[in-house]
Design goal:
Pfam families: NUDE_C (PF04880). Keywords: Cell cycle, Cell division, Centromere, Chromosome, Coiled coil, Cytoplasm, Cytoplasmic vesicle, Cytoskeleton, Kinetochore, Membrane, Microtubule, Mitosis, Phosphoprotein. Residues 182-224, 314-338 are annotated as: Disordered. Residues 323-338 have a biased composition (Low complexity). The structure is a single chain. With 338 residues, this protein is mostly helical. Helix content is 75%, strand content 0%. α1 (12-188) runs antiparallel to α2 and α1 packs antiparallel against α4 (248-280). The chain starts with 11 loop residues before the first helix and ends in a 22-residue tail after the last helix.
Length: 338
């Protein structure tokens, strides 16, 4: 405290007033401080209540978040397990697909190689097909030519058969005529023995000439085609030996006709043999000829061995057949080809 002796106040009243003023100031300060304290307390209580409310809300939210967090953690674990399972499954599927891809690639390589081989084989087959078609066309052309020649030869062979039958009939008729002539000569022998012997010699000479195929026989009038048909011979023979007996000259003429027929048959056989030789010169193989399709083998051999068939004809008919490895066209007999 201040020394009383050195007091700045002049009097005690000044000092009292001073201290009153100071006390009033402090009182005002206290009052203002108390007011502020009350206000602060009220504000703090309100703020505390608000904080408590916020704390409760936060605690509630925290509990909710904790429960949500736990649920989410469980979901995360479940998702992790699913992801791990899916990853393992995906790895297995990838491994299986890689193996399958390797197999598919190997199969593709094999198929490509097989396709190349097939294409090469196809090219070879196409070349072989073209060659086969060319050879087949050549063979068909040669076969058609051979069929045409064969048809011509068959027609000539049929005509030869008919001529041989006509020759046989004419020989039979000539034999009958010789027998009839002999009977008439026996009946007319007392009257004209000399004339009969002369006629017999002429008849024998004519028969020998006809059997030996004379080169210059007496040729009767024939058709314009150069061939004397059996019907023409028969009509001429029946005209000459109808109701009246034949004269010796008519008989000799008939025998000369037979000789001419044999000569023409021989010429036809020579032509047929030359045609067959020309045909078989085109083929690599030759073997004995089969019998004609319209005759059996026995009948054909009997006809060839007949005394009325010349041996030269029988030898010329022994021609070749087509090779066994040469297939003929469908529907055509093998005997008709060669």
């Amino acid at each position: 405290m201040t020394d009383p002796e050195r007091s700045p106040f002049d009097s005690a009243e000044d000092e009292i007033n001073y201290w009153k003023e100071v006390s009033s100031k402090y009182k005002q300060c206290v009052e203002s401080a108390q007011e502020e304290l009350r206000e602060f307390q009220e504000g703090s209580r309100e703020y505390e209540a608000e904080l408590e409310m916020q704390l409760q809300q936060l605690e509630t939210r925290n509990r909710d978040l904790l429960s949500e967090n736990a649920r989410l953690q469980m979901e995360v674990e479940t998702v992790k397990e699913k992801i791990a399972s899916h990853h393992a499954d995906g790895h297995r599927q990838i491994s299986a697909l890689e193996e399958e891809l390797g197999q598919v690639r190997a199969t593709r390589d094999q198929l490509q190689k097989y396709i190349r081989e097939l294409e090469q084989c196809n090219d070879d087959l196409e070349r072989a097909k073209r060659a086969t078609i060319m050879s087949l066309e050549d063979f068909e052309q040669r076969l058609n030519q051979a069929i045409e020649r064969n048809a011509f030869l068959e027609s000539e062979l049929d005509e030869k058969e008919s001529l041989l039958e006509s020759v046989q009939r004419l020989k039979d008729e000539a034999r009958d005529l010789r027998q009839e002539l002999a009977v008439q000569q026996k009946q007319e022998k007392p009257k004209a023995s000399v004339e009969g012997s002369l006629q017999d010699r002429r008849t024998d000479a004519a028969m020998q000439a006809s059997s030996s195929r004379p080169s210059t026989p007496v040729v009767p009038q024939v058709p314009s085609n150069g061939f004397t048909t059996p019907g023409a011979f028969r009509r001429g023979f029946e005209t000459g030996s109808g109701a009246t007996p034949l004269t010796p000259a008519a008989r000799i003429s008939a025998l000369n006709i037979v000789g001419d027929l044999l000569r023409k048959v021989g010429a036809l056989e020579s032509k047929l043999a030359s045609c067959r030789n020309f045909v078989y010169d085109q083929t690599p193989y030759r073997s004995p000829a089969p019998p004609p399709p319209y005759l059996g083998r026995d009948a054909f051999e009997r006809r060839l061995s007949s005394p009325h068939v010349p041996q030269g004809l029988a030898k010329r008919l022994d021609l070749g057949t087509r090779p066994p490895n040469l297939a003929g066209p469908a529907g055509l007999p093998a005997q008709m080809l060669f």
